[in-house]
Write a structure and sequence with these properties.
- The structure holds two protein chains of two kinds.
- Chain A is an all-alpha fold.
- Chain A has a single domain, classed as MetI-like (MetI-like fold, Orthogonal Bundle), CATH 1.10.3720.
- Chain A has 14 helices and no strands.
- By secondary structure, chain B is α/β, with parallel strands linked by helices.
- Chain B has two domains: 166 residues, Periplasmic binding protein-like II (D-Maltodextrin-Binding Protein, domain 2), CATH 3.40.190; 200 residues, D-Maltodextrin-Binding Protein, domain 2, CATH 3.40.190.
- The chains are: A mainly alpha, B alpha/beta.
- Chain B: InterPro entries: Bact_solute-bd_prot1, SBP.
- Chain B: Keywords: Cell membrane, Lipoprotein, Membrane, Palmitate, Signal, Sugar transport, Transport.
Chain lengths: 281, 440
């Protein structure tokens, strides 16, 4: 293969990647630039380049607005999302592991029922969930958002696939012979082997809960319980009335994506492993 | 880890069952049908998206230890809170009080979600304090009923750039005819007389309201839909003409582009409601001191008719167990000088009571408007809004359909009038599909 062909072969994918990168990063760049301006300059200066850099003053304004309710929303989001993703991952892993490693009647039926849960969009479930929680007077509570967020059928699917391929039966038998109980075996042996898959499940779950907007919108009416997505949306719908809110929404949006960015950067390494490993075996 | 997991599950199960069996207060009988005082202390919930409302409610709570009001919030009505109200009606757990804009009240009425506050004698007595047309917005023309207590109103007037008009020697238009003539002169001077918001049907409704258009009527049996009466057609034709001649800009409302059109002096006037004063102040800070307010242009010289854009009511839901106390609170909120003053300070709400428009905080000169006492103009406009404009019960769908057509019209496809007749058809279809009787 001669050099020009090689360059040609590389140039096209690189170009495509460059265009995609630009396409995906421009809104974030816009957000960052917008968040650094004061409201006057926001409307009157180039939206893709800086004017006076007032990012920190803006952050200060945001944190001060309405007794710092924004920080409360961030904390809520982290609790809803982190908590649900963590617990949900454990549940999905246990469930997937059980489906992969134990033989019992109705196993496939159970698995298919769980799997069909993937097909039901979260938005379609929000209203029935609301009516159910209303029956037990539990709407407008932390649990109304947290409990439905725990389940993750796609995670069960991934965990089952991975446990089938990644956790050898021989190893489990060895553990049993050594006198380890089933639960202990799961936590001490299986979870270690499944770790890359668990990170993947965690990330998927984290993003899904973070983005599940309709459920909190329907369930919550107490501002102190809002996750940050709902809080910012609420402000954004009030921009007609209180135009100052626009600046706060922009700076809030920038800050609200940082936990997602951090989660991805930290877990990316494991995540790539997890996707690849499940696929090849 | 296992322990943590198990205890978390146990806790959530406990919480659920505790919520299910406890809270006896919610089971003491059917919703009250009449407006009788409750015995003992009462706790009310109030859902609203008015910014800073907590500070207003706190004043009430401090003075009324026996009637405590808890504020709940959410996105603005069409942004989700109305849908939540409907879900809560279905589930039977609405708040006691809700913030509902005038144009959405009929949809709650046809769903039978509201308590008739006119059955409270304290409300019936307070009726005369309200500007008559605002009362009409909650009673839908029926003297004996009221489906909320008017809270705020949006009388319209003309915001204009005094400096630019003066510099270019253009007279401030008093009629719509003069306004169109001025539009041509402004265009020659390098600006646009205004921005015709390409999707803002509410502003257009304000224009139609002023011109005498009557979009909906209800005779107690059936709804009549008339988005294409002669008056509305006249208004649509008028603006279509300005759009076709490119004498107005047409950027989307409430965007940075829109702010920029005003901030950069490319748009010279805005026929808007009283709350628009704040929109200009924060959207176009560079133009401070250069704006003034004049009455809305008239269809015939010498008339004094204003339109209305916006406004809302405090409604009591039919599930409320304490309608009397809720009505007491809602009356205080919307008639007392203290509450109205705070509502104006926190959220620029413009009162719906006759006395309210004359309160001292609205008599002050406004620096941004060159020290003009702009609220005097709006107080006058508030009395000039014609009373009998009624909203339909499916406004969301009407707005969507009309707004699609308006967007097409400003980009040269179709006209405003065509958009309105499409909205007419789709509104009638929506009413039928919801089994709401409609006259054709």
């Amino acid at each position: 293969m001669n050099a020009p062909v090689l360059i040609k072969q590389r140039a096209l994918p690189t170009l495509v990647m460059a265009v995609c990168t630009l396409y995906f990063l421009t809104p974030i760049w816009w957000l960052f630039v917008g968040a650094s301006k004061n409201s006057d300059q926001f409307t009157s200066t180039n939206p893709l380049w800086f004017a006076d850099f007032e990012l920190f003053a803006n952050i200060g304004d945001l944190f001060a607005y309405r007794d710092g309710v924004f920080l409360r929303w961030m904390l809520n989001s982290i609790l809803y999302t982190g908590g649900a993703a963590l617990l949900g991952t454990v549940l999905a892993a246990m469930c997937g592991y059980a489906l992969a490693k134990y033989r019992f009647r109705g196993r496939e039926l159970l698995f298919n029922v769980v799997l069909s849960g993937v097909l039901v969009p979260a938005t379609a479930l929000a209203l029935p969930l609301f009516l159910m929680f209303s029956k037990v007077d539990a709407t407008n509570t932390f649990w109304a958002v947290f409990l439905p967020s725990l389940v993750n059928p796609f995670g069960v699917y991934l965990a089952r696939i991975y446990a089938t391929a990644g956790v050898p039966d021989e190893l489990l038998e060895a553990a049993r012979i050594d006198g380890s109980g089933e639960i202990r075996t799961f936590f001490k042996v299986a979870t270690r082997l499944m770790f890359p898959a668990l990170v993947t499940i965690f990330l998927f779950h984290f993003v899904a809960v973070w983005n599940n907007f309709l459920l909190p919108l329907i369930m919550l009416s107490d501002e102190r319980l809002f996750p940050v997505t709902l809080g910012l949306y609420t402000w954004n719908t009030q921009v007609n009335q209180i135009p100052e809110l626009r600046g706060l929404v922009i700076i809030g949006a920038l800050l609200s994506i940082t936990p997602l960015v951090i989660a991805f950067l930290l877990l990316q390494r494991f995540w790539r492993n997890g996707l690849g490993a499940g696929a090849v075996k | 880890m296992r322990k943590a997991l198990l205890s978390a599950i146990a806790i959530s199960a406990l919480t659920l069952s505790a919520c299910g069996s406890g809270d006896d207060s919610s089971s003491d009988g059917a919703p009250a049908a009449s407006c009788a005082p409750s015995s003992g202390p009462v706790s009310l919930t109030y859902t609203t998206w008015i910014p800073g409302i907590e500070n207003v409610v706190k004043v009430w709570n401090d003075k009324n230890p026996n009637i405590q009001v808890k504020v709940q919030t959410g996105p603005n009505g069409n942004g989700g809170t109305y849908q939540n109200f409907f879900n809560q009606l279905k589930a039977g757990n609405t708040p006691d009080l809700g913030h509902i804009e005038y144009d959405a009240l009929p949809s709650f009425r046809v769903q039978d979600g509201l308590f008739d506050v006119a059955s409270c004698d304290i409300v019936a007595k307070a009726k005369d304090q309200f500007i008559p047309w605002t009362w009409n917005q909650v009673s839908f023309g029926d003297e004996k009923t009221a489906w909320g207590i008017p809270q705020d109103s949006g009388p319209m007037a003309l915001f204009y750039r005094a400096d630019l008009f003066e510099k270019n020697n253009i007279a401030i238009p008093k009629t719509w005819e003069e306004y169109a003539a001025a539009a041509a002169k402004v265009k020659a001077a390098g600006g646009y007389i205004t921005n015709f918001s390409q999707s803002d049907i509410n502003q257009f409704a304000g224009f139609a309201w002023q011109a005498g258009g009557r979009w909906f009527a209800n005779d107690g049996q059936q709804w009549t839909v008339d988005l294409t009466d002669d008056k509305t057609k006249k208004v649509a034709g008028y603006w279509q003409d300005l759009i076709s001649k490119k004498l107005v800009s047409t950027v989307p409302p409430w965007t940075t582009e829109w702010d920029n059109a005003y901030n950069s002096s490319s748009a010279w006037t805005w026929v808007s409601a009283v709350w628009g004063a704040n929109s200009i102040m924060s959207g176009a800070p560079k133009t401070a001191g250069k704006w003034r307010v004049a009455p809305m242009p008239q269809w015939s010289a010498g008339e004094n008719v204003a339109g209305n854009w916006g406004g809302s009511a405090t409604a009591i839901f039919k599930n409320s167990k304490h309608p009397y106390e809720a009505a007491q609170f809602a009356l205080w909120l919307n008639t007392s000088e203290e509450a109205l003053g705070l509502l104006n300070k926190e959220a620029q709400l413009y009162p719906a009571t006759t006395a309210g428009t004359k309160y001292s905080y609205l008599a002050n000169p406004v620096e941004f408007y060159g020290g003009q006492k702009i609220y005097e103009t709006f107080a006058e406009a508030a009395t000039q809004v014609t009373p009998d404009f009624t909203w339909g019960p499916t406004m969301t769908s009407t707005y969507t359909s009309a707004s699609d057509g308006f967007k097409a019209a400003v980009s040269g496809q179709g006209t405003l009038e065509e958009a309105l007749s499409k909205a007419q058809t789709s509104t009638i279809d929506t009413l039928k599909s919801q089994a709401i009787p409609v006259k054709e």
